[in-house]
Write a structure and sequence with these properties.
- By secondary structure, the chain is α/β, with parallel strands linked by helices.
- It folds into 3 domains: about 80 residues, Orthogonal Bundle (Arc Repressor Mutant, subunit A), CATH 1.10.10.10; about 120 residues, ATPase, nucleotide binding domain (Nucleotidyltransferase, domain 5); about 130 residues, 2-Layer Sandwich (Nucleotidyltransferase, domain 5), CATH 3.30.420.
- It is about 40% helix and about 25% strand.
- The protein has 10 helices and 17 strands.
- It has a 5-stranded mixed beta sheet with strand order 6-5-4-7-10, with helices on both faces. A 5-stranded mixed beta sheet has the order 13-12-11-16-17, with helices on both faces.
- The longest helix has 25 residues.
- It is globular, with a radius of gyration of 22 Å.
- It starts with a helix and ends in a 6-residue tail after the last helix.
- About 30% of the residues are buried.
């Protein structure tokens, strides 16, 4: 008998991907029935039932109260058991660090904030100690692992972080380093990508695609395509700072943003015309390439009035065939980067729950 290994691999991938999407749908819309999930994802209810059965048997997913009946037997509603497993997440995008313990419904159970010591190894030892302190309060519950949000991009070949805001971090294989001291699975991902995923999970709209614009110490972006982070061929998708703003002289959008921060941040307010032009450049470029029409703007310097986003919407609509574009500011609660890190860990640990 000849075994088609490619078919087996594809089947395993499809099962895992389908389950990932189903769990995300439950997390975002719970309580929800199996038939509602099946309709939204355009799959058979039997497929949803089959994939979820092991999780229901182990009480990771709970069939709780009955939903409204359409004439037959009232459907049971699905919810995630908050205590099924916990995620440890760290916002390591700068020297102001946050460590959080998050339950299976993406709710923050515990949070610590501290300033990282400037010497990299002292800082990492400090981080490890904070993580161990938080792990001690879990009281025997399952920990999925640790997800670290960093500025810059993790090189998939070397495991190193490029251009980090934390001096010396780019010289360390942080995944191997932390696993050695914590004995936990460790994932590292770009902070803007995780923020994009967190914002997507927080959206009330039922959409598939979204683009996140991050206004922090640098200009970054994260792309959600078909409800998942899109990284591109080398992990650099969403690096909007490299978009061309002007050819002669050659200026990138990131150059313009850095100049704005340097010249106007001290005054406390960025001139509205500069801000609108910058955001319009990003939105128009993303629109032209991807046709994504939902945008979220966040980050520590997204402190402007939302009326400026309405102006960007108007300009984009005028310059892109009259189609509607939707841009909103990030919400602070729940925290997008921590929520996104926990969701990313869940997605990548489905069969370990």
């Amino acid at each position: 008998m000849v075994i088609n290994l490619s078919k087996i691999r594809n089947s395993s991938y499809l099962r895992k991907n389908n389950l990932r999407v189903i769990l995300k749908e439950i997390l975002k819309h719970q309580p929800v029935s199996k038939s509602q999930v099946a309709r939204k994802l355009n799959v058979n209810s039997s497929t949803v039932s089959q994939l979820l059965k092991p999780f229901i048997d182990r009480k990771i997913i709970v069939e709780s109260s009955h939903g409204p009946s359409s004439g037959g037997r009232p459907p049971q509603l699905l919810t995630i058991n908050p205590a099924a497993a916990f995620s440890m997440v760290v916002d390591l995008s700068g020297y102001s660090v946050r460590v959080a313990l998050i339950d299976s419904t993406l709710k923050i159970n515990s949070l610590q904030e501290f300033n990282l010591k400037p010497q990299i190894y002292e800082g990492l030892e400090q981080l490890i100690q904070k993580i161990k302190e938080m792990l001690s309060i879990v009281n025997g519950h399952r920990i999925l692992g640790l997800c670290i949000a960093v500025s810059g991009v993790l090189d998939p070949h070397t495991g190193r972080i490029s251009s980090s805001l934390i001096k010396g971090l780019e010289n360390i294989r942080i995944v191997e380093f932390l696993q050695k001291y914590l004995n936990l699975p460790v994932l590292v991902e770009n902070d803007a990508n995780l923020s994009a995923l967190g914002e997507f999970m927080n959206l009330e709209e039922d959409i598939k695609n979204m683009f996140y614009i991050h206004l922090g110490d640098g200009l970054g972006g994260g792309m959600i395509l078909d409800k998942s982070i899109f990284k591109g061929d080398r992990g650099y998708a969403g690096e909007i700072g490299r978009m061309i703003y002007s050819c002669e002289p050659f200026i990138t959008v990131g150059d313009v943003y850095s100049k704005i921060l340097k010249e106007y941040l001290i005054e406390g307010e960025i001139p509205s015309k500069l801000l609108v032009n910058l955001l319009f450049s990003v939105v128009q470029n993303v629109l032209s390439v991807t046709d994504i029409c939902h945008f979220v703007v966040g980050g520590r310097y997204a402190i402007f009035d939302e009326k400026y986003l309405l102006e960007v919407e108007r300009l984009a609509r005028e310059r892109f065939y009259g189609f509607e574009v939707f841009i909103r500011k990030s919400i602070n609660n729940p925290d997008a980067i921590l929520t996104g890190a926990a969701e990313y860990l869940i997605e990548n640990s489905i069969f370990n729950i």
